[in-house]
Amino acid sequence: MQSRMLFVAVMVAILAAGITAQEQQKAPLSPAGTATFTFADGKTITIDYSRPSMRTRKIFGGLVPYGQVWRTGANSATSLKTDVNLTIGGASVPAGSYTLYTIPEEKKWTLIINKQTGQWGTDYDEKQDLARVEMKLSKNASPTEQFTIGFDQTGATSAVLKLDWADTTAKVEVAEKK
To answer: Which residues of the chain have pLDDT under 70?
Structure first.
């Protein structure tokens, strides 16, 4: 009886070790990223998102279909927190927390600023949209492997928000609203 129990215990340990090894071989979830911009007066914008990689996949018009709402990253929804009132692409955005989505298309993109927060990236509720603004597109000279969000300062109270992945960069103006 004891030898049978020992045999079962050894088999369970071997099975558990095999499962653990398989889990470790799976591709990791997209790593977290943060983009922060600080205005001259110390007020900040912070965007938290996940950074998927291309991994030889066709991204826009493939993995990310044209004309459909995209979570703008991977995993959990991309969040924007601002401690100052903003103007993003002409839209008024009060200080607070929001979720960012986009609608990529071949010739233009739309940035969606959504009032719902804390949800998984695919849990989008259009009724919660605060604003939709058009983004300007450009083609990258060489592909960007990992999705990246960043800011380029354009003045003491302004910047350009950039979404960069594959062969595409989408941009929109962001300004502190006084």
So the answer is: 1-28
